[in-house]
Amino acid sequence: MTCRDEVGASTGFPPIVSKDARVLILGSLPGQASLAAHEYYAHPQNAFWSIMRELTGADGDYTTRCESLGKAGIAVWDVLASSVRPGSMDADIRLDSAVPNDFAVLFSSLPNLRLVCHNGKKSQDMFHKFVRLPDTYAELRFESLPSTSPAYAAMSFTDKLRIWRGIIEPELNRSVGQ
Q1: Residue 18 CB: number of other CB atoms within 10 A?
Q2: Which pLDDT tens digit goes with each residue over 118-156?
Q3: Residue 125 lies inside a defined structural domain of this protein
Q4: 20 to 30 A from 127, CA-CA: which of 13, 19, 27, 81?
């Protein structure tokens, strides 16, 4: 399986999702290390999995970490299904070739979803540019989190973790239907 089509577009992955997900974390589009490994957030300096280990205990191999997210009520996906992206930086994403994922289908399959978190500003900007949701999703809360990318070095891991924890943990600790 390759994650590049015949015109050089990067193609994302299916979501990490369980039917009980209450929180969805959205990235932009997998970078080169993730595409090569066929795993979300595979770059060794990306803080995503370290933060998830702190929040949910997600540890071990990729499959085990993904299962831990599902048990904790966290889903992961990207805003874009595909786009030409010649490098790994979000700035490399060519918006003129961007194809968004189908969020209406995903959201309709997640009856307990309450919080959508953007892993970085680019995810948030692209979601607002490309995704139109019906009013039936007006109760969803959207939050922008500091990027876990190693390219975002303006904030320490400790500060990123504090912000992620402050936004995500209250939703994970809330009982379903509350």
Answers
A1: 18
A2: 999 999 999 999 999 888 888 899 999 999 998 888 999
A3: yes
A4: 19
Q: How far is Cα 76 from Cα 41, in angstroms, rounded to an integer?
A: 10
**Among 51, 50, 15, 52, which residue's Cα sits nearest to residue 30?**
15
What is the H or E stretch that residue 168 is in? Answer: helix 157-173
Sheet holding 23-27, edge to edge: 74-78, 23-27, 115-119, 141-145
Q: Output the six-digit token pair for 145.
A: 């989190």
106 burial (CB, 10 Å; 0-12 / 13-18 / 19+) is middle
pLDDT of amino acid 176:
57
Is 101 marked active-site?
A: no
Can you give the CATH number for the domain in which 38 is found? Answer: 3.40.470.10
Tens of pLDDT, residue by residue over 70-111, are 999 999 999 999 999 887 787 778 989 999 999 999 999 999
| Residue 164: inside a domain | yes
List of long-range contacts for 33-39, beta carbons under 8 Å, 24+ apart: 33/88, 35/3, 35/4, 35/10, 37/62, 38/1, 38/3, 38/13
